[in-house]
Design a protein that fits this description.
Length: about 170
Amino acid sequence: MSLIEVKRLIEKLSLAPHPEGGYFSESYRSQETIQQQPDRFHGEHVYKTAIYYLLERNNISAFHRLKQDELWHYYVGSSVILHILDPTQGYKQRLLGCALTDERASYQVLVPQNVWFAAELKDKTQFSLVGCTTSPGFDFSDWELAKPDTLIDCFPQQAELIQRLVATAVA
């Protein structure tokens, strides 16, 4: 897909720059709200939200964490490498992409709540359109962008990766 076609896709889906990098737009927000939600959440939350998320060329999704599980869905383009830093299980890497053309890839990847994670394109000359679904529904009060020094203190063996995939993200 050419740069012009990517720009058309950004316009068609009303994608806007995301603070962690890349582009996004909310595609679904349930109408009902959760009456008794876990204590880790602040304010009212809906049951579920979904977004389109696009990375192009050298965009990244910088290390961040959410208070809820996030299910990533592959749609089209390059596979996406998800880097997960779990305080109990250490570093994990998952590949989101077309399972028919890449046997290591999965069409869906679950990122558990409260783990640090980042994403980048496998092929940095391309783009990728994915979706992300959270339940309870996403609110920016659930989102925390990583501070590099703090994250490196917790995961010193991943210092180079962390320095490469922190808040230098530019959409």
